[in-house]
Design brief:
2 helices
Length: 65
């Protein structure tokens, strides 16, 4: 596995886990005067989780034929 894909996969996995925890526990997040809705973290979990899977799969090399 190439190092870039491994590091990217680990970072995206950590981000996905944090988003999932926020979704489950309902942690409040506020940016300036805007309160970020909890459901947005569910969407972020799906996106970052998909990117983590993509990074780990691309690091394995080409699929066997």
């Amino acid at each position: 596995m190439r190092r870039y894909e491994l590091v990217s996969g680990i970072i995206f996995t950590i981000m996905a886990v944090v988003q999932l925890i926020r979704t489950v526990l309902g942690w409040p997040v506020q940016v300036d005067l805007f309160t970020v809705p909890v459901w947005l973290s569910g969407v972020a979990f799906l996106i970052t989780g998909g990117m983590a899977i993509w990074a780990f799969r691309s690091g394995r090399g080409p699929a066997p034929v």
